[in-house]
Amino acid sequence: MNVDLLILNAAQLVTCASGGRPKRGAQMRDLGIIAGGAVAVKDGLILDVGATADIRARYESAQVIDAGGRVVCPGFVDCHTHVVYAGDRLDDFESRILGKTYMEILAAGGGIMSTARATRAASADELYALAAGRLDVMLHNGTTTAEIKTGYGLDIATERKLFDVIARLDREHAMTIRPTFLGAHAVPPEFASANAYADHVIHEMMPAIFAAYEQSNFAAEGVPLAVDVFCEDGVFDTVLTGQILSAAKERWRQPVKAHVDEFVNLGGVRVALELGALSVDHLDVTPDAELELLAQSETVGVFLPAVNFNLGSTHYGHARKLIDAGGVLALATDLNPGSAPTPSLPLVMAIACRYQKLLPAEALNAITINAAAALQLEGVVGSIEPGKQADFTILATDDYRALAYEFGALLVEKVIIKGEMQWNASF
Ligand code: NIG
Ligand code: FE
Q: Which residues have any ligand 1 atom within 6 Å of their CB?
């Protein structure tokens, strides 16, 4: 049979196969590796997976990639990013080096608010060009699917502009995109209190954003618009978080998620679990009892250890606890100008392996099949199985563990999305 693309002779074909389910507990150590493996691709989808001799006997193609001596993985899935913003936070970076904390800078009107000022002043075309450039660099680091949040507008017009930029990225960029509305990212100075701003988000901003969503390519394709809140001391407490997420769920019938326990444990995990959240993200100071509760649920626990690293912290969330309790764990970059200016999931793996004691196999499942589950995409991306999108990241190494081991290396050699080559470092 003639197919569109064959990838043959992979030293390791890392399938992350799971039968369309996220992985838990000891399953996280299993990558479903086929030594000398091969894949056949047709119409942008994976048609068949197996030993090279079998695939070669069944299929022929005008396009063949010999992956001899290489690792072939599923394309990486970054399930938590804030790529649409203008400006930078280089001054904050220096202030932190000189001793100020992240939350002190935010409380003084810097931090997220300074990015919001720059983002409000930028045009949609400028924001699109900046974000598309960031997606390109993520892609060169092996990412083929990304979640992108609004949240640097904090007023209706700018949040709408950010949503439109995300919808345009989905139409025009090769990467698969999943959108999230994060109007409740900080309390802008135009509002006297978090209560007043949360009220505005629920009653005015969400209707405007969901009206735009209904007209967008996302709604046309049946892609949901998730709703997120920064649940943190000095930002949105658990009562306001519950009100915003309940409105998203009940009035707009959309999935919800939350930034919880980045600095202070407020109990955000319980609120999110009651609402059946897709994911709870950060989890840096979540007590073990709450991680155990999370482990009993379908909600994905997303750790973002590039944040701890970037903020110069020596404290990391108890990722090991969540895996050992049988929960679904994912890792993501949190790419944003303040707390995590990195496009690299391999770097995130490297940090998680060292400071959170994940094995490289666990970290690789956490940026593929389990990250896909955090976006309700576990049946579509995140593993190399027949019927899934033909997204692959090919590494210039014959052992997948090098991805976490050689931090700062450039091991990503080729990136293929829906069967099309999008990056080839060996050109
Ligand atoms: O996930 N914590 C809140 N939001 C982002 C940081 C955003 C920023 O600092 O610009 C985060 O860490
Ligand atoms: Fe974030």
A: 82, 111-112, 115, 230, 259, 262, 307, 334, 336-339
